[in-house]
Specification:
mainly alpha, Growth Hormone, Chain: A, 21 helices, about 0% strand
Length: about 450
């Protein structure tokens, strides 16, 4: 092969890499995630039914969520620093591999008749620890693969992938539980993880160039882990926006943790009703994700965050709480997720535009820690609050029946319904309060974009 051939081949390879690192490359990764989310959703639905049948307690289901989510949040700062040091594509692949391995272990335990609730706690904690790397690596990779005009649209596509799983996973799991059982469903899940890893293998993810912010944050692992805190603290608009999400995650995690036990309690363990509500919830997210993918979100992204949060609280969370049948639950389920892609996508677009790419691993990990550190606590509290406070208070003759009985009814599940109503009210308040603070309301104008050209005096 002569020199001209080598140059021509190199040009073709470079063009291929450029193409696969743009929207087409992102779409390949997205398709892999769609398939992976579907498998994970089927497994989660099947294991939720299994855990409820053997325990009959909201606390058991809440603890599964807590042990899966807690390590993700707590390990975020260190994970983010390592993401900025390592190849982000490999980090995403190993995160998917770890999640697949945890499913394999649960599959073996269940197939051998040895699965216990605490095994789900351990498997969730293992997968959650690696999940701490997934979010900053994925977010930073998207920043490098796409122009900033596409950030919100990419977030919409990711929300669409998650929501499509929410629609299809309960239906498919319900259909397949009879013929292939939980063992077969988890085997499908393992295969979907391999598909997601395969999609990443054929895509080129560029590494970021060094910036002044990146040079400033270099040092020991401890220093780099702490840099994200300092970066956000020095930008009051981003910090204030995070505190809005901190409050919202605390509030909504309390209620949505008990969604499945609430519906199962109010329907005498009707799996079809639960699956339908979960699917409609996913359908709302699909609709919102499609809207964001086509539209790109509001010009001022902060409106997508604050107004979206307030409207979703009223039309979704409160309606789920006052519902007592499938029709009303389905209405609330749809609107509880319809605006989520716009809320999260608008926030993501703000952060991706404002934070330098080579420090996004550190900054986004700390962002996740601050925004979601309240969620594990809320998840941990949700089960006991439901089992020992709200449920007894809404039984016949309970202490809260006189005040709220006409709104949510009485009996099994009514206490958890009241939890939805109260968190919906507080969640709407949090969204609207954000407009009172100029650093939140004007965050897009106050902070320059990371690629903004300085203006000479």
């Amino acid at each position: 092969m002569d020199t001209e051939d080598l140059i021509s081949r190199g040009r073709r390879d470079g063009e291929k890499h450029a193409r696969l690192s743009g929207m087409s490359g992102f779409t390949i990764v997205w398709v892999g995630q769609v398939i992976s989310f579907l498998g994970s959703g089927m497994t989660w639905f099947a294991l939720t039914i299994w855990a409820w049948e053997i325990t009959g307690q909201a606390t058991a289901l809440a603890l599964v969520a807590f042990f899966a989510f807690g390590p993700t949040v707590l390990l975020s700062p260190v994970a983010g620093a390592l993401v900025d040091r390592w190849n982000r594509k490999l980090v995403m692949m190993f995160s998917d591999l770890a999640a697949g391995l945890s499913t394999v272990v649960v599959l073996i335990l269940y197939a051998s008749g040895n699965l216990q609730i605490w095994h789900l706690y351990a498997a969730g904690a293992f997968a959650g620890a690696f999940q701490a790397f997934q979010f900053p690596a994925y977010s930073a990779a998207v920043t490098m693969m796409l122009p900033k005009e596409q950030y919100a649209r990419a977030s919409g596509m990711l929300s669409l992938a998650e929501s499509a799983s929410g629609v299809l996973a309960p239906i498919m799991a319900g259909v397949l539980l009879g013929p292939i059982g939980i063992t077969g469903i988890m085997a499908i899940d393992v295969f979907t993880f391999l598909v997601a890893i395969g999609a990443l293998l054929i895509v080129h993810v560029p590494q970021p160039a060094a910036t002044e912010a990146g040079k400033e944050g270099r040092g020991s692992l401890l220093k780099e882990s702490a840099y994200g805190f300092r970066y956000i603290y020095e930008r009051k608009g981003l910090l204030s926006l995070l505190l809005i999400f901190l409050a919202a995650n605390l509030i909504f995690s309390i209620s949505y943790t008990v969604l499945s036990p609430m519906i199962l309690a109010r329907t005498a363990n009707d799996e079809v009703v639960l699956g339908t509500v979960r699917s409609v919830m996913g359908l709302g997210g699909v609709a919102g994700g499609l809207l964001l993918s086509a539209w790109g979100g509001p010009k001022r992204k902060i409106h997508g965050v604050l107004l979206g949060m307030a409207i979703s609280s009223v039309t979704g969370t409160i309606v789920l709480g006052v519902g007592k049948d499938l029709a009303v639950w389905s209405l609330g389920a749809f609107f509880s997720t319809f605006l989520m892609p716009i809320i999260n996508g608008s926030s993501q677009a703000i952060w991706q535009a404002k934070v330098a790419p080579d420090v996004q691993g550190r900054v986004f990990s700390v962002r996740r820690l601050i925004a979601q550190v309240s969620a594990p606590l809320a998840i941990l509290l949700a089960g006991p609050l439901a089992d020992h406070v709200f449920e007894p208070a809404m039984m016949t003759g309970g202490s809260l029946v006189y005040s709220f009985g006409n709104l949510v009814g009485t009996g099994s599940g009514a206490g958890m319904s009241l939890m939805f109503v109260l968190t919906g009210v507080f969640g709407g308040f949090v969204g609207l309060v954000g407009y009172l603070f100029p650093e939140v309301r004007n965050v897009e104008h106050i902070l320059p974009d990371h690629d903004a050209v300085p203006v000479s005096p």
